[in-house]
Amino acid sequence: MKDDKTTARTGGETHQTAGGKHDTMTTQVGMPIADDQNSLKAGPRGPHLLEDQIFREKLFHFDHERIPERVVHARGYGAHGTFELKESLEDVTRARILTEVGEKTEVFVRFSTVAGNKGSADLARDVRGFATKFYTREGNWDLVGNNIPVFFIQDAIKFPDLIHAAKQEPDRGFPQAQTAHDNFWDFISLMPESMHMVMWIMSDRTIPRSFRFMEGFGVHTFRLVNAEGKSHFVKFHWKPKQGLQSVLWDEAVKINGADPDFHRRDLWDAIEKADPPQWDLGVQIFDDTFADSFDFDVLDATKLIPEEDVPVRIVGTMTLDRMVDNFFAETEQVAFQTGNIVPGIDHSNDPLLQGRNFSYLDTQLKRLGSPNFNHIPINAPKCPFAHLQQDGHMAMHNPKGRANYEPNSHGLGPREDAERGFRSYDEEVSGTKQRVRSDTFADHYSQARQFYLSQTDVEAGHIADALIFELSKVERLEIRSRMVSHLLNIDAGLAEMVADGLGLEEMPDPAEAARPVIETRPSPKLSILKNAPDSFAGRKLGLLLTDGISRETFDDVRKAAEKAGAVVEIVAEKVGGVTTSEGKRIAADQKLDGAPSVLYDAVAVIASDEGAARLGRMHGARTFLADAHAHMKFIALSPEARDGFWTAAVDEDPDAGVFVLEKDGARDFIEACGALRFWERGE
Ligand code: HDE
């Protein structure tokens, strides 16, 4: 709740200034300002005077508004919420957040893309970051994950190379926010360890419909440690209660033009409209016996543990229900660190995780400019804290009293607590000091193959299309061919499709594999479509209306959609809306040209005879319908739109995914929309 005294109402919105308390504008140090329109000059047309401290302070501060964007994950969007534990993991951990059933812990989540700059578009084909800060009663725990359970590389020392290769090329400064260029595929094709991740990034996982419809993964194997000091391994999962959903590549490209903030807007709208997204937290827990018997090394972040081998146990639920008050203060300044763990959770020796533990602390100093970045409210713990660190830039809390060292005989200051305090797992470690990659990390193709074979035909086709698209943007032929040589180790059929799609003149030999490929059974959990929801809840229906329609037809569709939990957006030629045959006005939310059908999960066109003929003459209306059809969407049409508009836009007959709004048409249409897409159309 905001304090009334510190807020002022402007244009109906609650507004709070940086200082808060006054209506009178002041300088940073509180001096009231008489004129905020004109700088101080020698005469009305004369030069500026250097003594104008009001002007200088304002411009000085403005000039320093930006902080360096994140070197990766620069574009992101955050929201607040809570996590509630439903099942105790007391047998395997002493972490309070995983043992106190029913306790609610505040969280802040930042979703992001990886490669693009801060201003890039949301629908880039890219891995999504899924970073969660749990403000637990035993300190902050940051689970800094992605929406893909594996990673490109095995050792953190290759991370700068990976990111240099993925980002814009250094001489020309483009392309940004895309991997469809020579440097990325050159590097990747020289790194067989990235092949499993390549299958994931070329799948629809990298073009999610929104943050609300993606899974999250901690990626690395972590440890849970119980009160007796016994350790189990754990992998963390986030499962969206809304179900999984992605867009098609052609939609992604068009959404980026129509609404580059598509994912931001989606999260904002869902939370502001009180439809808070939820994710279940799941854990895969296993011990050394399983780890030793597993075909791959559990410390290798390019591998996952199939859910069919170790089921995911759901232990709690996270709800995101509050947007930030200020984007910069919260989403931009939030500083995640894999090093932030709590008693009962510990790191494993995954060489990627070990490297991250160094990098995140280091990067925060660069971005936020002071070792006191944890004094910023979004980063500060919400539990009591006490230490003797002091001073530094922007220090907000300094120790009080005489003793700022420990031990001291003043009897002042905090002391360690052997019982409550964090203890690393007593792992025995020995070894020769060397730069070496473990032999157990050497299989690079088996899980890539397993992922590919676990997809539906539609999804497998998308992977081939994505590879063809990306490699077609690569100029050097040997890179295309080198990639195909890896695909031959994953699936011969895929390699052939890609080679054919690229028009490769000669099929290369398969890349040399350090280990023979192991045939593992497909894992249906790796597919989006095999795990798709059967509900239209939380989705968006685009309703294209014309003048002269019947109010009843419109009401039927709108009510059926809203009953199913969907959001309806009205699109019309003019944003002012349309007039029904009964002479009633229906206001539109969007003007047709600004709202192509790619912004919607399903569309309906309700037109009068005259309106249908008019739509048929409008390019925007024809592409609205033609695209919805090409993108396998469910479509509903008023009889007039079917008779007078359909053929102007689509050169195929309406199929079983197209509904006519007669009798129970609206109900049947919305029920069908639960399947999200009419894939049969593409067969
Ligand atoms: Fe990150 N990563 N990363 N990363 N990462 C950063 O930290 C890094 C890796 C991830 O919303 C940076 O605060 C290294 C894997 C997310 O603020 C930086 C390595 C995974 C975010 C950094 C990795 C991630 C980051 C840049 C190789 C998934 C955004 C800004 C060992 C498990 C967090 C920052 C946010 C951000 C380093 C690999 C996820 C430079 C060295 C694997 C979600 O510290």
Short description:
Helix content is 27%, strand content 16%.
What does this structure look like?
The longest helix has 18 residues. Helix 12 packs antiparallel against helix 13. The two termini are 54 Å apart. This protein folds into three domains: 323 residues, Beta Barrel (Catalase HpII,  Chain A, domain 1); 86 residues, Hemocyanin, N-terminal domain (Up-down Bundle), CATH 1.20.1370.20; 149 residues, Class I glutamine amidotransferase (GATase) domain (Rossmann fold). The protein is built from 19 helices and 20 strands. It is globular and about 90 Å long. The protein is of the alpha+beta class and 683 residues long. Strands 3, 4, 5, 6, 7, 8, 9, 10, 11 and 12 form a ten-stranded antiparallel β-sheet that branches. A six-stranded parallel β-sheet has the order 17-14-13-18-19-20, with helices on both faces. The structure holds CIS-heme D hydroxychlorin gamma-spirolactone 17R, 18S. CIS-heme D hydroxychlorin gamma-spirolactone 17R, 18S binds next to strand 4, strand 5, strand 6 and helix 9.
Mean pLDDT level:
96
CATH homologous group name of the largest domain: Catalase core domain
Give the CATH architecture of the largest domain: Beta Barrel
Structural domain count: 3
In this entry the ligands are: CIS-heme D hydroxychlorin gamma-spirolactone 17R, 18S
CATH class of the largest domain: Mainly Beta
Structural class: alpha+beta
